[in-house]
Amino acid sequence: MESLTGPTPSISVRLFGSFEVRRDGVALTAADMGGCKPRHILEILLLNLGTPVSKTRLIDLLWGAAASDGSVATLESYISGIRRAIQPGQTKTGPLRTANSGYVLDPTLVDLDLFRFRGLVRDAGELPPDEAYPLLLEALDICAEPLLGFELASDWAEEARSRHAAEKVALQIFAAETAASLDKPDDAVNLVQAAIRAEPLNERAWTVLVTSYEQAGLPAEGLAAYDRCRRLFDRDLGCAPGPALQEAHLRLLRQRAESNSELSEVLAALLFLGERLNGPKGRQLPPAESRRMHENAGRVLDSFLQRVRAAV
Fold first, then answer.
1. Per the database entry, where does the chain bind DNA (predicted)?
2. Cα 20 to chain center, whole Å?
3. Element (H, E) at 14
4. Domain ranges (residues) in the chain
5. Which of 73, 119, 121, 215 has most Cβ atoms within 10 angstroms of its Cβ?
6. pTM for this one?
7. What is the CA angle 149-154-155, rounded to 5?
8. Which residues contact 200 (CB under 8 A, 6 or more apart)?
9. 143-170 confidence digits (pLDDT tens)
């Protein structure tokens, strides 16, 4: 019987964490499908849910250079075993179909956690932040455990994990940006720190982290995060953070200086000298006034540096 919204899935599958296939509420084992190779076939088709995978492609992924003249017959035998396990008595109407000299799983008859994950992210991208945020958190909950973590020795599984890792980082950053837009800077910091652990050179993630500390009124933490980013970029990329991060850094310096008159004077002096070094901008000062401000900036910095040296 079909539901009001479409066909009822014949099987539910989990690819995050421990692999699990359930049919009519009963868990199926690899042995039920005929062993490890049939499970691999099913996993590959699940990773391509709704898209046909040719027999040639399946044989290449499963056997590679070790494929033989009998590989097609072996593959077809494995497919028969999978069908018996996941759709008994439904050879032509079950989720596993023959298509384009290969095989495809019907997405309307398979409840797959990876498919739900991507659907939530896609839907969230079309909604306002307050409606998108819970969907993003739900998607992150679905992918809390590794994708295909049990298939450690398969190249095709490693490729799938790499693709998903990039998807997850993008999701974490998107969720952090959404949290920040909803005035939840603490949530944003926690979310984006996970993205940075996965991709330490992701500038978008560092920008969200620094600006979230700024939003939370934590300039010291934001300045420390910027310094970590600056040193990391210099060491691994040989460059400085981009304009957005540099602007956030300057705002944090000003925010920190507001509570300390001495730091405020030092920052003002540095900004004045920086403008002079970078060439004339904006209103031109009379020579005498410019010279006076330059000397005053020098005295402020000299006095500050002397106190720093004395304290070390």
1. 1-107
2. 25
3. strand 11-14
4. 11-112, 114-257, 260-312
5. 121
6. 0.78
7. 110
8. 232, 236
9. 999 999 888 778 999 999 999 999 999 9
